[in-house]
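Hi V.,

You were right to ask for the full record rather than a summary. Here it is.
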Amino acid sequence: MSGEPSILLTGGAGFVGRYLAPALAKHFPQNRRAILCLEDSAGLPEGWQREVADITDEAAVQDAVARHKPSIVVHLAAQSSAGRSAHAAEATWRVNFGGSFALASAVARHAPDAIFFFVSSSDVYGASFRLGPATEDTPPAPLNPYASSKLAAESMLRDVLPPSAKLIVARAFNHTGPGQDERFVLPSFAAQIARIEAGLCEPRLRVGNLSAERDFMHVADVADAYVRLLECAGGLPRISVFNVTSGQTHRLEDLLGTLRGLARKPFEIEPDPERMRASDIPCAKGDPARLKEATGWTPQRPAGELLRELLEWWRGQVKAER
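Predicted structure:
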């Protein structure tokens, strides 16, 4: 078993994992594939086996990695909401740093030659976005527990993984699509509109700061970028960092305007103080040059297509809830 190429994916039952797992299966058909997940996780994608472990349970993670002996580890599992992290810092650090440490420790012991692909976040740049578009060499300056925990995990992985392992860090910028829950801004807009259309709430859409500019990519494009980085891993240095970004930003006000044009019922827009972030950055833009040079990747799905898909998915969800 140890001689076969294999992939271990954490967070495979989550939002991004549901897009990434099929893409990995398609591009690495010769690999054994397993998803590290809780026993009661939803059904697994076709072609994947279940490795049961809570990412924060060091003994269970050690056992799973020892049995599977992956040649590629893709670490998605995280508490992924920056907004939630402000009210749940301990839980965020326990998962994002503690879980990453448990996995890295297990890989160091039982799969020391593995490629370790870590999904970090553009949030690590934080206050440095005020200096202009972030490159991978921009100094990190995190502004919330989520970003701090991701940056700490990056640093830990550099130390804990052995020299024989290869570390790829993907600092992903905002991405969304069908299946993302409404803790995040664009799904929140789409879900509220779908409920207004269904007559389940008053025609008033509650929003945070609409002047913020962000890069919003389709989750399927981001999954494609991850796969491309893994495909070229053999030619990368032992430790590499990549911004996963389109290099373009959109004002939230403009994206909401597009959704408003797609809505089947009119509604008012109401600022909600609870949705405002004290540390909000006016513009979070990244430089994609390093990723494009390494992989040739560019996003294929425009913002208008993304918004239509997102709204239609939430219409289906609201219909099912009724």
